[in-house]
Write a structure and sequence with these properties.
The protein is an alpha/beta fold. Helices cover 27% and strands 22% of the residues.
């Protein structure tokens, strides 16, 4: 008998003994089960800026982990060896209790579900996040954002901060990712309405993205209340290994267009560009640089107090200690 998975927007209808689009959810005996629960392909400590999150406990460390799998087939995937189902991965079993204890033992301020697509292994994410909340450890989800309605209701209340990839316009999603933009915009809207911390990332591929793409996305994100947008340079990977890396000039031009959207905090990634945070009202420098292992945590303490600019009392979006 066929059964339907509700982990993402695809709602795969799966035959007995078969797998859904992601390759990690299977119909076994009339129930949809995960094939790799708690079998991690990656586990380690990262600076929170690597997610990237610049306005969520800057300067802190995050225990970052992933199971295998994704519900997209992006031709430019940066982590295709662990996201795409045709690759075999070595794994280590780490139950949720151990994940939370590791985070506390290693002094991590948060646990990040990242690298591959957490939506397809959300049962494990939910178990980890539930325990983390009980133990006072914050959680981060780095995702393509293509939630189902059911997944939004399960996950958003449990996770403290999100970085959502917005990959391009509708045509780009269809042609390059075998996916859809609209569920992502719906997910972003739900995260903002829930009052959760949100930053958005777009990987810019010169020759596929245009300034019109950036303008379109800026309008969509601004309308949905996005406050922080990272635009990053593409480097050749996976099925786009022969494509040229995005130039610094293209990134700078895109950043200029992005700033016209009215989104207050715009950053450039994978670049020599220096990412600084300024107060949107008085324009004073709050954080000089968001490089890994930098002094941004201390700088934030000196310039931001109780979420407000110390110079003009403007609210600064984010969570700062």
């Amino acid at each position: 008998m066929k059964e339907r998975c509700n982990f993402c927007y695809r709602h795969c209808l799966i035959d007995e003994g078969k797998q859904g689009f992601c390759g990690v959810r299977e119909n076994k005996g009339g129930a949809i089960r995960s094939l790799h629960y708690a079998c991690l392909v990656s586990l380690g400590i990262d600076p929170i800026e690597k997610k990237p999150l610049y306005h969520f406990l800057p300067g802190s460390q995050s225990l970052s982990l992933a199971e295998q799998g994704c519900n997209y087939t992006c031709q430019f995937c940066q982590n295709y060896e662990i996201s795409q189902k045709e690759y075999a991965c070595q794994t280590v079993f780490v139950d949720p209790v151990k994940v939370v204890s590791l985070a506390k033992e290693q002094g991590a301020a948060s646990i990040s579900f990242t690298y591959s697509e957490p939506l397809v292994w959300q049962d494990y994410l939910i178990d980890c996040a539930t325990l983390a909340k009980q133990k006072g450890v914050l959680t981060v989800m780095v995702s393509n954002g293509s939630f189902s309605k059911e997944a939004r209701e399960r996950i958003i209340p449990l996770v403290d901060a999100f970085n959502i990839d917005v990959k391009g316009d509708r045509q780009f999603y269809q042609a390059v990712c075998n996916a859809s933009l609209d569920p992502v915009l719906e997910g972003i809207e739900a995260i903002v309405q829930a009052g959760k911390h949100l930053e958005v990332t777009t990987l810019l591929i010169e020759g596929l993205h245009t300034m019109e793409t950036v303008e379109f996305l800026g309008k969509q994100l601004k309308e949905r209340g996005v406050q922080v947008w990272h635009l990053s340079r593409f480097f050749p990977r996976y099925k786009m290994e022969t494509r040229k890396a995005t130039s610094e000039t293209f990134l700078e031009d895109a950043l200029a267009v992005a700033r016209e959207s009215g989104i207050p905090y715009i950053y450039g990634g994978n670049s020599t560009h220096v990412d600084s945070t300024f107060c949107p009202r008085c324009h004073r420098l709050l954080i000089r640089d968001h490089q890994y292992g930098g002094t941004q945590g201390q700088e934030a303490k000196e310039t931001i107090s109780q979420g407000r600019c110390k110079f003009c009392n403007q609210t600064i979006y984010g969570l700062f200690v």
